[in-house]
Design a protein that fits this description.
The protein is 41% helix and 16% strand. It is an alpha/beta fold. The chain folds into 2 domains: 83 residues, Leucine Dehydrogenase, chain A, domain 1 (Rossmann fold, 3-Layer(aba) Sandwich); 132 residues, Rossmann fold, CATH 3.40.50.720. A 6-stranded parallel β-sheet has the order 1-11-8-7-5-6. Strands 3-2-4 form a 3-stranded parallel β-sheet, with helices on both faces. The chain is globular, with a radius of gyration of 19 Å. The chain binds guanine (GUN). The site of guanine has 9 residues, from β4 and α6.
């Protein structure tokens, strides 16, 4: 039996609607949630992500402060911009699109963002709060994956989740969130150093592919009935497409859909959730600000 194809757009729309309602409440108090979106350089994929985020902000009634900087921007200039945004009370969230040009140290930039405005959840303070289970901003893609799994009522407690990839943005935080007591999955992390990857993936009740390698996961690697979540967004050249490329996940969808119990498509699966969770974090940042000035 073919898998249930998870409609990420539909779940994302619900999350965005809720962010919009919360925004309306804040606006009545005179606060308009505002996200500063900083893009350095002209990487086409980054530009397309940033445009999507700005569109979503507008749809939720929030403000986007778009800051586009040339690729030759120095690290010092970027750090100074972040200081200015940290000090600006009308900016509630700061997002610096990654990757940054090679001459800029990403760690220093992420660490410069005030944790109360760290809606990406990348600051070491946010990561520490997540690991300790304290309140704080969760990174958008891993949080979005968790919300998708919950919305679809996919059994998590006691399930074996196998995460492919150990990036700071996806693999590491996902492994952490899935093993939290309130989720209660048993987690295996696989990466480029893993020998016999299929041995692990075939044991997965939940298989999350976040390796950035198109077609890495084939049907023979999937346990029958498993939930397969594809976080990969790879541009693969396709002369038949107008743009010259198409988006492909890490999973061979056509094969996997016959074997899995649930599967996310690319596009239209995890991608929309990332933006939706960002909207949720921005409105939350603005709510925290609102409480801080009213003394509640
Ligand atoms: N690059 C790829 N994903 C992300 C993300 O979630 N946030 C930022 N800032 N950059 C990214």
């Amino acid at each position: 039996m073919a898998a249930i194809i998870i409609d990420g757009k539909a779940v994302a729309a619900k999350v965005r609607e809720s962010a919009k309602l919360r925004t309306a409440v804040l606006k009545e108090k005179g606060i308009v949630p505002c996200l500063a979106v900083v893009l350095v350089g002209e990487d086409p994929a980054s530009l397309s992500y940033v445009t999507g985020k700005e569109k979503a902000l507008a749809e939720a009634g929030m403000l986007g402060r778009d800051i586009r900087l040339p690729s030759a921007t120095s690290e010092a200039e970027l750090l100074s911009l972040i200081e200015t945004l940290n000090a600006d009370a009308s900016v509630h969230g700061i997002l610096v699109q990654l990757p940054l040009p090679k001459h800029i140290n990403e760690d220093r930039v992420i660490t410069a963002i005030d944790p109360v405005k760290d809606v990406d959840g990348f600051h070491p303070v946010s990561v520490g709060n997540m690991v300790l289970g304290r309140p704080g901003f969760l990174p958008c893609t891993p949080h979005g994956v968790l919300v998708l799994l919950r919305e679809l009522a996919i059994p998590l407690s006691g399930a074996h989740a196998v995460v492919l990839g150990r990036s700071n943005i996806v693999g590491k935080p996902l492994a952490n969130l899935l093993s939290r007591r309130d989720v209660n999955a048993t987690v295996t992390v696989c990466h480029t150093g893993t020998k016999d990857l299929a041995k692990y993936t075939r044991e997965a009740d939940i298989l999350i592919a976040a390796a950035g390698r198109p077609g890495l996961v084939t049907a023979d690697m999937i346990k029958s009935g498993a939930a397969v979540i594809d976080v990969g967004v790879n541009r693969v050249s396709d002369p038949r497409s107008k743009k010259g490329y198409r988006l492909a996940g890490d999973v061979d969808f056509d094969g996997a859909v016959e074997k899995a119990g649930w599967i996310t498509p690319v596009p239209g699966g995890v991608g929309p959730m990332t933006i939706a969770m960002l909207m949720q974090n921005v409105v939350e940042a603005a709510e925290i600000y609102s409480r801080s000035i009213s003394g509640d």
